[in-house]
Amino acid sequence: MFRFIFGTWIGRLLMFLAAVGAAAWGVRRFLGLDQSESDDWAPSPEEPPAETSAGSTDVDASLLEILACPEDKQPIVKMDDKIVCTACGKRYPIRDGIPVMLIDEAEEGPVPTEAEVAAARAALQGEPEAAGAATAEAAEASADAGSADQAAEGTEKQAG
User: Fold this and answer.
1) What is the pLDDT of residues 66-112, one digit of tens each?
2) 3-class SS of residue 10
3) What mean pLDDT comes out for the span 16-33?
4) What gap in Å lies between CA 80 and CA 101, rounded to an integer?
5) Is residue 61 within 8 Å of 125, Cβ to Cβ?
6) I want to staple 82 with a disulfide (CB 3.0 to 4.6 A). Which of 13, 17, 91, 122 is the partner?
7) Cβ neighbours of residue 99 closer than 8 Å, sequence gap 6 or more
8) Residue 54 in domain
9) What are phi and psi of 89, to 5 degrees?
10) Per-residue model confidence (pLDDT) at position 85
11) CB hemisphere CA count around 116 (13 angstroms)
């Protein structure tokens, strides 16, 4: 079959045209004259590069409402520059405004207190007064817990 197609004058004409087309394409490409559509994606040299938000940790509030921890399916909150699970305490990174909700990428951390969760949710809703009060309550609660632990240790030392 191969010999039948390329043995005729039509087959030879097709092979000749294909060779000429390939040679013309190669010469244009070599000389830089090829302005094909596949090269249009690159920005032209006169245009400044587009601004990127490298390192941005802003995440849309509506997205945070529907996200959950991939490990235990519990609610999450945004604390500082991480997404934190309210149940297990895993901290997921935010890269260029996109939460990376992969268990392998998460860092272990302490479970946030109810006051810290309330402060994070208030800050997300744009209530700085409530966020400040909740943060102060969280700091006070952890200070109280620390002094209670120290008092318990002192009592144990006196008894022992």
Assistant:
1) 999 999 999 999 998 999 999 999 999 999 889 999 999 999 999 99
2) helix
3) 84
4) 16
5) yes
6) 91
7) 59, 63, 67, 83, 92, 93
8) no
9) 85, 5
10) 95
11) 18
The pLDDT value given to residue 30: 79
Q: How far, in Å, CA of 93 to CA of 98, rounded? A: 9
**Which residue segment(s) compose the domain that 133 sits in?**
61-143
CB neighbour class for 104 (10 Å; exposed up to 12, middle 13-18, buried from 19)? exposed
Question: Does the predicted model carry a pTM greater than 0.85?
Answer: no
Location of structure tokens 């941005």 = 56
Contact (CB, 8 A) for 83 and 101: yes
Is residue 131 very low, low, confident or very high in pLDDT (cuts 50, 70, 90)? Answer: very low
CA–CA separation, 45 vs 57, rounded Å?
30
Which H/E stretch holds residue 26?
helix 9-31
- Those residues with Cβ within 8 angstroms of residue 114's Cβ, 6 or more apart along the chain or in another chain: none
Residue pair 112/77 in contact (Cβ under 8 Å)? The answer is yes
Q: Classify residue 74: in a domain, yes or no.
A: yes
CATH no. for residue 107? Answer: 2.20.25.10
